[in-house]
Amino acid sequence: MTPAKQRKGKVKNVRELDPVTFEVLRNSFSNAVELMAQQFRLTCHSFVIYAQDFSCALADANGDTVSQGEQDIAVQVGTQHLVCKNIIEQFKDDIHPGDVFVSNDPYAGGSHFNDVRVLRPIFVDQELIAWAMANGHWSDVGGSVPGSFDVKAREHFGEGLRISPVRIWSRGEFRSDVAKLIVGNTRAPEDNMSDLNAQSEATRVCEREILRLVGRYGKDVVTLAFAEVICHVANLFRARISELDDGTWTTSDYLDSDPAHGEGMIPITVSLTIKGDQLSYDLSKSSPAVSSFMNSAAGATLSGIIAGTKRFFPDIPINAGLINSIEVELGPTGSVINAAWPTAVSGFVSGSFEKVINAIFELWSEIMPERAIACSFNLEYLLIGGRDVRFDHRPIFMWYDWMVGGWGARNGYDGASAASPLFGAGFASQPIEGQERLNPVVTTHCRIVVDSGGPGEFRGGCGVEKGGQLTDAELPVMSYCCDRSRSIPWGTKGGLPSTPQGLWLNPESSRSEYRGAVFSNVELVSGDAFSRPSAGGGGFGDPLDRNLGAVLDDVIDGYVTPERAAIDYGVVIDSSDPLIHNWTLDQEATSHQREYIRTNRESWLDADAEVIARRYRAGELAQFDLIRQYGVIVEWGTGDLLPETTRQHRELIKKRSVSGWRL
Amino acid sequence: MAKNEKVLRFRLSIDVGGTFTDVCAIDEVTSQLRTAKVPSSPTDPLTSVLNAISALEIDLAEVRLVTHSTTITTNALVTRDFPPAAMITTSGFRDVIEMRDGTQEDVWDSFREVGKPYIPRRDRYEISERIDYSGRVLTPINMDQAHDLAQLFTKRGIKTVAICFLNSYANASHERAMRESLLAVAPEMEISISSEILPGINEYERFSTTVANALLAALVSSYIGRLDEALRNQGYCGDLLMMHSGGGSMTAALAQRLPLRLAASSIAGGAMAAKYIAKQCGFQDAIAIDMGGTSTDITLIMNGEVRVVQQWCVEYGHPISFPSVELATIGSGGGTIAWVDKADALRSGPHSAGADPGPAAYGRGGRNATNTDANFYLGRLGNVLAGGAITLNAKDAERAITDNVADALELSVLDAALAIVQVADASTASAVRLLREARRSLSASAPLIVFGGAGPLHAVAVAKELNAPLVIVPPHPGNTSALGCLLVNIRHDFTAMFQSLVSGIDPGALEDQFASLEREARERLAFEGIPDQQILLERAVNMRYAGQWRSLTIAIGKGQDSIPDAVKRFQSDYQSQYAYLNPTAPIEVYQLALTATGQLPEVQFRKHEVIGGAPVRQSQRPVAFDEAGDFIATDIYSRSSLSAGMIVTGPAVIEQLDTTVLIPPGFKAQVDEWLNLRVSEVP
């Protein structure tokens, strides 16, 4: 026996194709998808698509994904086949060469209305053999709020246009009446019409490639290769799962609140079971749907499950082999992760989606400690719309902005600072100079937030803060969505939480006002300023075990203040001349400080929360102290205690942080 | 005329790479090309240059022009061998180069992240100043702070500074004032200011480019100073030209201001050589493939030109917004490792055995099966490479293939070796396809021009996969960067912002903008000593459908019809590129581009008389080909024995010092008048 055959978890494959034909076709399928993605990227109009919010896939005749773009946005992966199967089911035999379908229905496998999916069936001599799909986030699909995110929506009717599957090309004829109906219900009809076109043409590139392969290898070999490529991924994945110990792990991550039910965080509960080579998830214990647009429907939740799992198996391609190897139980519809029509779901990314991913991270961190990672910041997005009076024709402007933030610390490494969200690690933020030309908003600052990384032996990545001021705008209104103003990104294995998100109007002025994590259509005037932080990532490991040199470096670089170095890490650093980086570490004081924290820190978490809130209001304690040392969550603007949220937060700190502390 | 005055008869080019230094000289009297290759000095590139020149046995006093490409800047960026440096930026924005656009290169692996900024946060300083989008001053620059910074840098021993202010592309006065303030205190400081280095919108790319430029300034200045002196000491009296990433050269004086432009100059040299060979063989379009030990570079030549992109990087997250030849690099080379995954699929790469331990057959302890091992097992490679520098061991190669591939897939060693090479060839073809798709108007009959130690072994199979009718193997496939360097003109690319719907363009404003770009171009070429009659200026506009984010570069003339003509060209290019049109959508211009060339006299190579005759084989050995499936007795030829007009019919192997050419059954190689091998299917 060679060593190769003794590998644990080896699954013997029965494959008809010879190794070369198989590997060449496997590569060719992914190449066909990359070619399609490349054309889409080069011809798109939506700036959200340009920022990489799109995905492309090739499916077989049944709609099972054969190959998916390697750079695809996380939020759309693992859902293409649902839309494809939905179309197959609806149109059955009424699918013809030259047809192209479009759908954005989140209740039928889609993610949210902005993600418009274009699907082209591929035929060989009247026989349907495959589907090419190009999906992209249109910057607007109608609804009551520009950008199609109405944070107050309870039902989808105000959110945007729901496109249940329709045929946009019929046997090679463009159905411009249907297309016009669709784009005519949006705020960007020209751009959307162009993107509809660009998407449809991109799928044609994939079709051309598949037909080239059929010409070279024959239809039967190509369709056999579809099946074997799917099987290959299933075997790869099952082999890896079978190497792991059996067991069941459960955790919850939380939404800030349900607006209809006062304060108190809303759990999304994920159970993971490994048995033999079978991986299963159970999310059926999650809360009922919340009365905002933060819910996710089944397809979007599945995408979170696939994307979260993939991060622990980054080398395994996504196709039906992976998707079908994972059993998922979402429980009955009507929950926050299995929302039913017509529950609002447009805010699912900031809502349920990234919570599902972080919960999955926590579970896999137990199973694969070498890849363990704490909680990361949450996607946040801001929109200011109005008229730009810098120009005589006073054009409408839409300042649509999203930020980078901190990722969770990892076992052995600090977290990534100022990175794109879990929603899509390839999703690019926008240049400030470009924004200033296009909008009457001056960015006052955009910088890494000191002390924002969750303390730990390995520090969470830092969040950023971006501030702006309206200059020459008429009737400007602002909408915002971020979550995680109360459900703070958590640390693990002794690591501490990071920082909350939420927007301040006119900060550092007499008119200062905390507007929180979710609001819409707030009226502003020129001259108004605003600022908002993105959260850092949670810490990993006991911060009192952090290497002293690493803390010193963080202080010199301005990632951590000397004050928080003492409070969070117990490291005492003095400076004679900070300008020339002349810092010194006080070893003795550090030993004392660490001992003091070690002895007392558990008791701080039992301090009277009302007293702590009062001291916050009096300016004696900082937000950091409340979150990290006392485990107290308040309404950050007023300082009013949130008792239930605090109880939950303390429970979570005990579970994730205290349990990892050495006495 | 003094008796001892020498005739300036040579043009010389030197490429210093990581492993070897190549040198080419053309004798302008006889049109004879001389080449040499010496190992690069691990410590000092100047030593490599001088060694290479002496290997060529040329008197520098007889050299009219020296052009040089080097990897020193790329290496400094890769190893981050930088001097102490600081960045000064607008208050509130010191993290622009750390935040970037937030994206990760690996979008799925949480344990692979983008490298830290070139200048750490502690050395990035803020100053109170602000300019708005239109160039209006919102906050005047605080000159007291500026002065304090100058003092502080002196105290800290910082002599390298990048000045990067927000919106400085619209108003450079604050950046200039900052620079003056520093120079007043420390005149020797090396300072790059973003409004001069890259006067365009978007802070991340501009700052990143400026920072990298500043960090290389001291290195390049000192290197060029030493090189210049060493050449002059040996009697050279001409200009020193430096190859840049955009596929042209620039004078040493300008290179000291824009040192970052030297990064990737070797690669650009290779691309320019490919362009030249395509033209020499009569092709407007070609695909150039350079396959070495660990990677393959692919470049397209279209309409006789190598495409230039406006942005590239040495390391993801650190964009360099200078023109650079368009190139795709994949991790596929001689040392690429073949392996069988846990679900029994045969994979090629991306890991490579590198130079150490190298392929198993090198006998240096490598256990993995590489392309080289497979090629050697198949008899395609002989057991002696590089003129005896490397000998290959058959047992080690066979064992690696058996252990890693054949046993796992239950194949014979022969079938496993064939499979390894076929999978590698298919992945190279896929990479070409991706690049060709982005430039879909490339002619379907474009030939493959192949370089590198491993390229000519794989070329015919890749060409078959791509339906390319012809493979061209130049006489010195291992010497292309130096060759390209010898051939280029002085070239600069300029761009200016100009955003307008085509329907609303004011022709006067357009002309003014181009005229101003042309002034800048002439000034730069005058600074380099190029006389007016040698200056060629070519205008282009970047056009797109209004609302799109990517554009096509369209040549534009002068005068009344220039805009409608450009629109016609845009429509036709768009159609051939993307296979569709938006006939009713408005079109916009969003950028003006100007290419300025300082034309140098064209290099003339010697044309060989085509005599023909029967080639004489050197030896015979069994070689396995894809087509035959088993070993067959195959003639082995020495490249140096082949003269113009000879035809080698496959199956055959042609060996030379720097590569091995495989001619499968059914193919033939014809030696042309430039001594290129032209390999094509026997009709």
From TrEMBL, chain A:
GO molecular function, one term: 5-oxoprolinase (ATP-hydrolyzing) activity
Domain Hydantoinase B/oxoprolinase: 18-543
Pfam families for this protein: Hydantoinase_B (PF02538)
GO biological process: glutathione metabolic process
InterPro entries: Hydantoinase_B, Oxoprolinase-like
GO cellular component, one term: cytosol
Name of this chain's protein: Unannotated protein
Species of provenance: freshwater metagenome
TrEMBL record, chain B:
Domain Hydantoinase/oxoprolinase N-terminal as annotated: residue spans: 11-182
Classification via InterPro entries: ACX-like_C, ATPase_NBD, Hydant_A_N, Hydantoinase_A, Oxoprolinase-like
Alphabetized GO MF terms: 5-oxoprolinase (ATP-hydrolyzing) activity
Residue ranges of domain Hydantoinase A/oxoprolinase in the record: 206-493
An example Gene Ontology CC term for this record: cytosol
GO biological process, alphabetically ordered: glutathione metabolic process
A Pfam family assignment: Hydantoinase_A
Residue ranges occupied by any Acetophenone carboxylase-like C-terminal domain in the UniProt entry: 509-677
Protein name: Unannotated protein
Source species: freshwater metagenome
